[in-house]
Design goal:
153 residues; single chain; mainly alpha; AhpD-like
């Protein structure tokens, strides 16, 4: 697979500056880094964005996330490794990532309301929207994740 475009950051620089500013705001939000990593990896898995999966798994590991929780993330509903708060965030991530199919059901929102403050609900929803736009950009341009020697084909 070859990239479709490699200079898109330069070509749409004002838009990407705004997206990076949004990422900085998310990092400073009341949501903890591990939760944000789980949300970003799960949305990226659903969207098939290898670039973002690679990036966010690496960041999660660097921030101390347990590798097994990352391995089991696609099966989070069947694992006891995730807190109720994480489960609510992951369900909301899935429902908003697949919003054309799910229409954001009230049951998923109720779980978010039970686990997060109103401010956190807003930040979580913005974080899910942000990773989805990143996934669409990277998948659309076929961005390639870095490859080191031990993983090269």
């Amino acid at each position: 697979m070859s990239p479709r475009m490699t200079d898109y950051f330069k070509r749409a620089e004002p838009a990407f500056k705004a997206m990076f500013a949004l990422e900085a705001a998310l990092k400073a939000s009341p949501l903890d880094a591990i939760l944000l990593h789980l949300v970003k990896v799960r949305a990226s898995q659903i969207n098939g964005c290898a670039y973002c999966i690679h990036m966010h798994v690496g960041e999660a590991l660097k921030d101390g996330e347990d590798p097994m929780r990352l391995h089991l993330l696609a099966g989070w509903r069947d694992s006891s490794f995730y807190t109720e708060r994480e489960r609510a965030a992951l369900a909301w991530t899935e429902t908003l990532t697949l919003v054309a199919e799910t229409h954001a059901p009230d049951a998923d929102w109720a779980a978010v309301q039970a686990a997060f403050t109103a401010d956190e609900q807003a930040w979580l929803t913005v974080a899910i929207g942000a990773i989805n736009i990143w996934n669409r950009v990277q998948v659309g341009f076929r961005a390639e994740h870095p490859v080191d020697r031990r993983h090269a084909a």
